[in-house]
Amino acid sequence: MKCKLAWLMCLTLPCIAQDRTVELLRTLADTPGPSGFEEPIRKVMVEAMTPFAASIRFDGMGSIIATQGSQGPRIMVDAHMDELGGMIRRITPKGLLTMQMLGGWLDQALVDQRWIILGSKGPVHAVTGIRDIHVVPVDERNRVYPRDSLYLDVGAKNEADVRAMGIEPGDPVTPDSPFMVLNGTGNYLGKGWDDRVGCGVVVEVMRRMAALPHANQIIYAITTQEEVGLRGAHTASDAIKPELGIAIEGGITGDVFGGKAEETQAKLGAGPGIFLYDSSAMPNRKLTQFVKATAAGKNLPLQLDLVQGYGDDSAEIQKSNSGVPTVNLVVPVRYTHAHNGIMNRGDFDRTVELVVALLQGLDAPTVAKIRDFAP
After folding, report:
1. CA distance linking residue 89 with residue 155, whole number of Å
2. 183 and 171, same structural domain?
3. 144 and 287: one domain?
4. What is the pLDDT along the chain (375 residues), one digit of tens a residue?
């Protein structure tokens, strides 16, 4: 009986000794916070950052702005706190709900999934149903169900039942996908690694930099509404007026599906990545060389990647303050923009090490050299 109980516990709990970083990542992944509804994850991040920050304030979009250091160039270190999700659009007379998606979802990722609606009376569990194979015509069985054909089912009989649960149009919806250490490996399964993994990197970088010398004013921005147009990064950059920017994101791996190699070159477990190109931004070339040299000097692996159809906060940082040298660093993630993504602990730890080394290596002459475009 004891053996059976231990086996059952291993199905729900990671059977390894827990550490601080695992618990941080678990909390970040499990906390809800779709674009525009970041209150729960904002609270978590403020509590995690406060012990290491000289000051914390907020911009008008709700982004967190925390500082370390009072002299030297203004270095903006960015990660966004919002995750993919949805919001209730309509309640039908039958007690089903339609959903407006927030962020870049594939339609095929939405069917037969569990969700949590953040209603006024607390969380309400829901599922996007799927038609039964026994009644679907043969010629429709391989079709993708368009998002506008899907309904959230909360078990209600009618509209009154739904409203009695505290649900109204406009309420946020988040994926229901609890964090898990995947079978005792160094891979972590969870929702929202884009960009809760970046938020975790920021917390650990702040923890280390609080005890290390550096020659900069480091301003950490945890931004809102990235998934719906990089909106928080725009206003945070306006408030910070950075001289140099480092965005930290969840990357995209190409090591599972057999797509074209040009789609992405990153692999899980092969270290942090740097984007040499994406659809929204191109990094500063001198800053890119500085990142490469720093990684080599610390014997840290660095994956070079170019991705189309991708946007990140570095695009808005880059366009602020009359132009800012920026770079986008990533922790590679499998299965982004879906309910269940996988990140690797080694990639996370090495990304923290790389960002700490970059911040220690930057100073006024180095930033001035990176910002110098004179021929």
Report:
1. 18
2. no
3. no
4. 444 434 434 444 444 446 999 999 999 999 999 999 999 999 999 999 999 999 999 999 999 999 999 999 999 999 999 999 999 999 999 999 999 999 999 999 999 999 999 999 999 999 998 888 888 888 888 888 889 989 999 999 999 999 999 999 999 999 999 999 999 999 999 999 999 999 999 999 999 999 999 999 999 999 999 999 999 999 999 999 999 999 999 999 988 886 677 788 899 999 999 999 988 999 999 999 999 999 999 999 999 999 888 889 999 999 999 999 999 999 999 999 999 999 999 999 999 999 999 999 999 999 999 999 999
Q: Do the beta carbons of residue 355 and residue 246 sit within 8 Å? A: yes
Instruction: Kindly give, in sequence order, each residue whose CB lies less than 8 Å from that of residue 277, ignoring residues fewer than 6 positions away.
Output: 306, 307
Q: Which of 83, 226, 249, 316 is catalytic?
A: 226
Task: Give the integer Cα–Cα distance in Å for 85 and 101.
Answer: 6
For residues 257 and 293, state if they share a domain. Answer: yes
Strands annotated E in 151-272:
152-153, 172-175, 180-181, 187-190, 217-223, 244-250
Is position 226 annotated as part of the catalytic site?
yes
Of 151, 175, 199, the residue that ends a domain is: 175
| CATH number of the domain bearing residue 149 | 2.40.30.40
The whole domain housing 201 covers 2-83+178-371
Q: What share of the chain is helix, strand, coil (3-state, %, to 5)?
A: 35, 25, 40
Token digits of residue 309: 């159809």
The distance in angstroms from the start CA to the end CA of the chain is: 76
